[in-house]
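Before relying on records like the one below, remember that each one covers exactly one chain. Contacts with other chains, cofactors or solvent are not represented anywhere in the record.
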Amino acid sequence: MAVLYRDGITALRRDGQSDSYYSAGHTIRLFMHDLPTLFDLPTLGPLPQLSNRIRDLDPIWEATTKSSCRVDGGWKGEIDALLAKLLGALEEFFFWRRDQLPKKQQITEEVFRQSDPKRWLKFSLIRS
């Protein structure tokens, strides 16, 4: 963890090099990814990229636009199998989004709470 932090700071100090911000950002991203384990916090499993999840909806959407319920840019009549498939996929997507994104935010907030220098100073004084 210390090496990742040092490398990120070192990359930021390389003035004039176009890759310094990229290197620093990448290193800090790796550091932040591993930081919850330092505090024994839960970590997220690998999440698919949002763009990949949305890409998976593309062929379903294309098929849905051919539905007999699609009339003049709107939806009319009963829901057929194509539309039901799209609505099911959308529902799954939004459940996934609801369940995953708040967890990531909560873990990040807890990392910053637990890494507060005042908290660690107090903890070290208690143990002394």
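Residues 44-127 form one domain.
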